[in-house]
Backbone:
């Protein structure tokens, strides 16, 4: 346990703030069908790394839509899609549009966001403030299927940030599919 905590804290220390503004990396936005930067109009922003090929990502999509409904007044939401360059944008758009996203989805073809954030699995959530500081990263919940969850980590983080400005967790283990590098 101590070794895992040390490794987790070490990985977190490698992550430098990412400005979600002028110097922010760009990615293909599946909704607008244009290359664009992530939006940082909110005090806090939620970035969730996902893959079409990951059942765990797909299983959490309805829960993410609910979080967007409940928290979009306070948080900006974006999905970072990590499927390979060979997976066409139209194929990804078709797949994710069936899931009914209520937030922008960016195809990280060049893996710039993945490289910066060092996500390990999908889904892997990051809550970032306007200055680019990571306030939380890790799992959305404690199981691969939200219908059997007993803990909803991301929802707890968002709720506490609104109430106190502090996240109850810096990190919780992401449960899902490993990301191929």
Residues:
């Amino acid at each position: 346990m101590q070794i895992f905590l040390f490794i987790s804290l070490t990985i977190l220390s490698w992550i430098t703030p990412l400005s979600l503004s002028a110097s922010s990396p760009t990615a293909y936005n599946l909704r607008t069908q244009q290359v664009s930067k992530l939006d940082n109009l909110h005090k806090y922003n939620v970035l969730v790394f996902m893959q079409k090929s990951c059942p765990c990502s797909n299983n959490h999509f309805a829960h993410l839509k609910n979080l967007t409904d409940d928290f979009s007044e306070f948080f900006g939401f974006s999905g970072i899609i990590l499927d390979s360059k060979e997976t066409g944008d139209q194929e990804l758009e078709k797949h994710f549009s069936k899931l009914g996203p209520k937030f922008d989805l960016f195809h990280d073809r060049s893996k710039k966001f993945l490289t910066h954030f060092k996500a390990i699995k999908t889904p892997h959530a990051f809550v970032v403030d306007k200055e680019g500081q990571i306030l939380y990263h890790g799992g959305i919940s404690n199981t691969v299927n939200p219908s059997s969850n007993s803990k909803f980590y991301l929802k707890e983080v968002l709720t506490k940030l609104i109430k106190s400005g502090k996240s109850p967790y810096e990190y919780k283990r992401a449960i899902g599919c490993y990301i191929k590098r």
Observations:
- Confidence is low (pLDDT under 50) at residues 1-17.
- Helices lie at 2-14, 55-71, 89-98, 112-117, 153-164.
- Residues 137 and 171 are 5 Å apart (CA to CA).
- The first strand starts at residue 26 and ends at 29.
